Amino acid sequence: MSRSSILDFSAELNKYSDAARANRFSVDIPNVARGHDQRAGGGPINLNVSGLTLQYWCESAELPGRTFATFDRKTYGLTTKLPMQTQFSDITLTFICMANQVSGEGSSARVTPATGLDVKRFFDRWMQTINPMSTGAFEQDGKYNFEYKSDYAATISITHFDQFSNQPNNNTESMVSYKVNLVDAFPISMGALTMNWGDDGILRLPVTFAYSRWYISDKTGFGLTFISEKESLSNQNINNDFDFTRRGFD
Predict the structure, then answer these.
(1) CB within 8 A of 88, min separation 6: which ones?
(2) Which CATH number does the domain housing residue 164 bear?
(3) Rounded mean pLDDT of 32-40?
(4) How would residue 69 be classed by pLDDT, with cut points 50, 70 and 90?
(5) Is 29 exposed, middle or buried (0-12, 13-18, 19+ CB in 10 A)?
(6) Pairwise CA distance, residues 244 & 84, whole Å
(7) Could you tell me the sign of the dihedral formed by the alpha carbons of 136, 138, 141, 142, in that order?
(8) Residue 139 belongs to domain spanning
(9) Of 186, 185, 58, the residue nearest 126 (C-alpha)
(10) Residue 67 belongs to some domain of the structure
(11) What is the pTM of this model?
């Protein structure tokens, strides 16, 4: 690598505060009441789990990808691929499970029985809202009818943060480097929790979500600026065999 190349590379690196770190993220899942108990006389189901803030217990997350389904086009000569549909893959979030809740402080602290595994309780309730099954000893207790999607889908936000900020007190908003919203998201799979007398490790709950689409929700959005075909050919010195309809994004 020549000296000029090294200087150019160094200048390029200096444009950024740091490399993006995998451990600087937050996941926001609405803790809301949705759906209805399908048993006789049942009312709204409350998903809220007292004292639970899900974003603190999400240990690993994924920023969603995007794939184009394609078809082969051959007019003459070589076969080319063209996109025909956008596809989104499911994402998996992994949560740390906690034991029973504690009330009070110091010598007055008391453990409250049957308040543990709050994260699992939350997703138990969410999936029960989607498709209520029997909640007791009798099979007729559950109707197994799926609810309308509008009653259980929610918007999940996934945010990546920078390490540095030029704002006073390093407020969270100024440290956002990338943020996406998953539209109409809902859990489609909740993993089993394996327990073993020979393992005193922490229980972790994987939950897989489906969603309709995602969009960038930080201040820059997609940040697309389209240029004319003539400018594109001039700048890139390439041949464009097809005319594509260009659409701007807000």
Answers:
(1) 64, 65, 66, 67, 211, 212, 213, 214
(2) 2.30.110
(3) 48
(4) very high
(5) buried
(6) 13
(7) positive
(8) 12-62+88-225
(9) 186
(10) no
(11) 0.77
> Which amino acid is residue 72, in one-letter code?
D
Task: Assess if residue 238 is contained within a domain.
Answer: no
Task: Please tell me whether residue 57 adopts helix, strand or coil conformation.
Answer: coil
Residue 137 within a domain: yes
Q: Over the stretch 152-190, which tens digit does the pLDDT of each residue have? A: 899 999 999 987 655 555 566 668 889 999 999 999 999
Amino acid making up residue 168: P
- Quick one: which of 170, 207, 221 has its CA closest to 27? 207
| Distance of alpha carbon 43 from alpha carbon 50, whole angstroms | 19
Q: Is the residue at 40 inside a domain?
A: yes
- Closest by CA to 27, choosing from 57, 49, 50, 51, is 57
Residues 6+ apart with CB under 8 A from 216: 178, 179, 180, 222
- How many other C-beta atoms are found inside a 10 Å radius of the C-beta of residue 95? 26
| Interatomic CA distance for residues 59 and 97, integer angstroms | 10
- Token pair in block for residue 167: 């704002």
Task: Report how many domains make up the chain.
Answer: 1
Task: Tokens 């007019």: give the residue.
Answer: 75
Amino acid found at 209: F
**What is the per-residue pLDDT across 109-139, written as a single tens digit (0 to 9) for each?**
888 888 788 889 889 889 988 888 766 655 5
Q: Identity (one letter) of the amino acid at 74?
A: K
Give, in order, the Cα–Cα distances in Å from 12 to each of 5, 8, 132.
10, 6, 55
